[in-house]
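To whoever is on call:

I kicked off a structure prediction for a single chain this morning and the downstream step that reads the tokens threw a length-mismatch warning. I double-checked the sequence; it's 71 residues and nothing unusual in it as far as I can see. Pasting both halves so you can look.
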Amino acid sequence: MALVAVSALAYVVMFSIPLASEQFMLDPSNIALTSMALGMGVAAAVLIEVIWWVQGKVLGERRRLWRSASD
């Protein structure tokens, strides 16, 4: 959870501070292109998740979202 929060904070910083946007060559003014890039990122994340679950089924491994106390 902390990794996701830190990542989200980093994106906010990169897009909101002009010097950071300039250094990373970010241009959020093109809404269509920015939306397409965001959609592609979300689709890639979903694809990776689906592959992980399918791989577990194929290999016969039990995939868990959270580690149990007995692990």
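Update from on-call: the warning came from a stale cache, not from the record. Cleared it. Sanity check on the structure: The radius of gyration is 18 Å.
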